[in-house]
From TrEMBL:
It catalyses: orotidine 5'-phosphate + H(+) = UMP + CO2. This is Orotidine 5'-phosphate decarboxylase. Belongs to the OMP decarboxylase family. Type 2 subfamily. Its EC number is 4.1.1.23. The keyword Lyase applies.
Length: 294
């Protein structure tokens, strides 16, 4: 599939498999808006820093401010579903509004929900976030493969059908992740390497970028022992408050660095509630990433 031209703006709400798939839309968004994903993580402490109450009204004000300030600037928003779910149905309603308004402004929405289960339950999770009929329909979803990669099939199938994408947990930045992800199978490969291999197969022949990505922490240092060339995006949390910088990306990701989607949350959000402060922080991170990956 040809790369979308700069004067062609594919719909951010795909209507069918004939439209550009997520990987192509992501490549276009990062090339035109800058290679940056901004998390929407309304921690109670962050709400307090903004002078907001830790309630639904504060949640809505925070989320609306971020989307209005950055929705026409950043390539990707990554709302953390847990911080909305903790308020029950009213919090979910705020999340639904945020998803719709972010996509109306041309930003892609990556729902950070890390769902993972088997059979009909996994199918229901997929329908929640990857079905065009769902009010939470997102451009992509984070998923956990540790009930076996095959358990993700309902999500893989629905993502393909609706032009959406997945980001599979592979090499996460939390120290506890290593005991699972770096465990060695009988064939000598780590579980993380196995997941990366599955994703490479999903993305075979995709152009300009596959729609099935991996989550790989930017704080992990040299990962040259892993084959990150999956022809798909690599979501890289850890920049900013967790200690990684854009300058670290070439060391961590090597030849795959151009496919990295750096994710920043507190590093940008702490500059709110001032909209100009949010925009300036996001632009600075995007410029630093561009300089690092050229």
């Amino acid at each position: 599939m040809a790369h979308p031209s700069p004067d062609h703006h594919p719909s951010t709400r795909p209507s069918g498999p004939q439209d550009f798939p997520f990987g192509a839309r992501l490549r276009h968004a990062m090339d035109t808006r800058g290679p940056l994903c901004v998390g929407i993580d309304p921690h109670a402490s962050l709400l307090a820093d903004w002078g907001l109450n830790d309630d639904v009204a504060g949640l809505a004000r925070f989320t609306r401010t971020v989307v209005e300030a950055l929705g026409e600037q950043v390539a990707v928003f990554k709302p953390q579903a847990a911080f909305f779910e903790r308020f029950g149905s009213r919090g979910i309603a705020v999340l639904e509004t945020a998803v719709a308004e972010a996509r109306e402004r041309g930003a892609l929405v990556l729902m950070d929900a890390k769902r993972g289960d088997i059979g009909s339950t996994m199918a229901a999770y997929a329908e929640t976030f990857l079905s065009k009929d769902s009010p939470l329909f997102s451009d992509a979803l984070t998923v956990s493969p540790y009930l076996g990669y095959g358990s993700l099939k309902p999500a893989v199938d629905l993502a393909r059908e609706n032009g959406a994408g997945l980001f599979v947990l592979a090499l996460t930045s939390n120290p506890e992740g290593a005991e699972v992800q770096r465990a060695v199978r009988e064939d000598g490969r780590t579980l993380a390497a196995t997941m990366l291999g599955h994703l490479a197969a999903e993305n075979a022949d995709a152009e300009p970028l596959g729609s099935f990505g991996a989550v790989v922490g930017a704080t992990l240092g040299d990962l040259s022992s892993f084959d990150l060339a999956i022809n798909g995006p690599l979501l890289a949390p850890g920049i900013g408050a967790q200690g990684a910088t854009p300058a670290d990306l070439p060391t961590v990701f090597g030849d795959a660095v151009r496919n990295v989607v750096p994710s920043v949350s507190r590093g940008v959000l702490r500059h709110g509630p001032d909209a100009a402060g949010l925009r300036s922080a996001a632009a600075r991170f995007a410029d630093e990433v561009r300089s690092a990956v050229v």
